[in-house]
Amino acid sequence: MLAIATAHTVHVALLPSSAELSTLDSGPVRPKKDFTIGPTTHVSEASPLCALLWHPLSAKNNCLVTITEGAEVRLWELNEENIYHSSDEPALSLDLNKLAAAKTADEDVHARPYGKGKRFSGDDLQLAAACFGSDGRVRTGWSEMTLYLTTTDGDVYALCPLIPSKWRVAPGVVESLSLESAAKQRAIVDTSPAEELLLAKQQARWVDDIVEQDIQEVVLSRTREPINVLNRPHKPDIKPKLQGPFTLGDDALNDDEDITDMFVVSLQLNGRLDDDSEDEFLFDDDRVEGLPAAVICLASDQANVHLCFDLDGVEPRWLPPAGRVSIISNGYL
């Protein structure tokens, strides 16, 4: 699929198969069909789009994420067999302004269609760009499940885990998440803060769900590539907590500087020392191991690029259930 966007419209075209594209004919290729995503959602009277992303963990490369300047995030899970129905309403929608103000998981934080009671205030987030923490090739637990977002003022936020209802899992990821969860459980003691206890419990429940699932093998129709697929856990919640704003440091941006774009690079280890030499470092393209740390690059309208090192990485967080108090703390980049 090929996604094409203007400020207020999103179109998706079904591309010909790779066999058709490999012919010697050098003439223009006309897509078999194209359709509009959210024909009543991204209208000219609504907030314009600021980002359009294919989800790196989409099971069939069919999950499109649209983000508006008004801080609305929508996941569209497109079904080629019923393309028009699946492109009419998002599978998941989040209003980040509502999510930032929410205290418990039972509050309504869904993005509403235009004209359905949306109210703005001076404190609403104004997004400039968004990016996933990885393109899916890095074998790390959380980076490709993390959607980073930045405002025009340079505030950085994150949603983790943000995944489709069916998502592809790389070899070793489930085992890695299980070990990480077990280590966190061992580190928690009765005297730990209530927020840490709740977070460890929520993360353990989410990881236990994927560990107990039977991995489904799906063969992609066009490439015949077999992939491993899991269902998205519903507990603690399918809606992640909005994390941030993360601190960029004192005087990181000029007063009259606006952020226009962002890109996130997950730090990774994809090499090994040669057995015969302590100095020679060999790279193995088949093994790309991720690290929690990341580099967040912010570009501005003054032709500046700000590099922010997130040494701790983003871990999954959810809102507490009704009746629990959430303590909101800032991170540091």
Description:
With 333 residues, the protein is α+β, with helices and mostly antiparallel strands. It contains five helices and 19 strands. The strands form six sheets. The chain has a four-stranded antiparallel β-sheet. A four-stranded antiparallel β-sheet has the order 8-9-10-14. The chain has a three-stranded antiparallel β-sheet with strand order 1-2-3, with no helix packed on it. The chain is globular, with a radius of gyration of 21 Å.
Short description:
The protein has 333 residues and is an alpha+beta fold. It is built from five helices and 19 strands. The protein has helices at residues 18-21, 83-86, 96-101, 173-187, 194-212, and strands at 2-5, 10-14, 33-36, 49-54, 63-68, 72-77, 92-95, 127-132, 147-151, 156-159, 166-168, 216-219, 226-231, 242-246, 259-269, 271-273, 281-283, 289-300, 305-310.
